[in-house]
Design goal:
This protein is an all-alpha fold. The protein is about 80% helix and about 0% strand. The chain is built from six helices and no strands. It has helices at about 5-25, 35-55, 65-95, 95-115, 120-130, 140-165. The radius of gyration is 19 Å and the shape is elongated.
Length: about 170
């Protein structure tokens, strides 16, 4: 059986990097607004492709565990490659992008605070945290990347695996 997650994960990483580059060239601000959500479509496509390709290798059948493994490992590899790219982009190619990201996050917090009538003291506390943190610093990335493997990575993978699994009727389940 081929390890389809390697190919799908590499393609996911490459496609997401190209997508992020296009978004970056249009407007860096979009990287943390709608662009990050639109990139989710690419992620879901390649995660499901890994399950489909693995299922085809298994003569049209795939267990929940095998489907989860193919999908989740695709996510892990793609997320790792994309994170390395974003780290290089924000720390070496365009360090000013960090300020754009922070400003976009602050604007979003201000909008949410008004919408949900959040007290100004809480809003200012959140803004202060954003201003004092580099979202693309090594420490932040080292913490956030493994956490992303769990959410959304493992959550999406188990949902997709449950939807796409197809048990072989010849095998009895106990």
């Amino acid at each position: 059986m081929q390890q389809h997650f390697v190919r799908s994960g590499a393609l996911l990483g490459a496609a997401t990097i190209v997508f992020n580059l296009i978004i970056y060239m249009i407007s860096p601000k979009f990287l943390v607004s709608w662009g990050s959500w639109a990139g989710l479509v690419i992620t879901i496509y390649f995660m499901s492709k890994a399950i489909r390709d693995t299922r085809n290798d298994l003569h049209g059948f795939i267990s929940l565990g095998d489907a989860f493994k193919a999908s989740w490992l695709t996510y892990v590899l793609g997320a790792f490659l994309t994170t390395v790219f974003m780290f290089i982009l924000t720390n070496y190619i365009d360090p000013g992008l960090v300020d754009v990201v922070k400003q976009t996050q602050i604007e979003a917090i201000e909008e949410v605070a008004v919408f949900f009538n959040i007290p100004e003291s809480q809003m200012e506390e959140q803004i202060s945290m954003i201003e004092d943190t580099n979202p693309f610093g090594l420490a932040t990335v080292a913490l956030s990347l493994p956490l992303s493997f769990l959410f959304p990575g493992a959550v999406f993978a188990i949902i997709m695996a449950a939807i796409m699994k197809k048990n072989d009727p010849k095998l009895k389940e106990n």
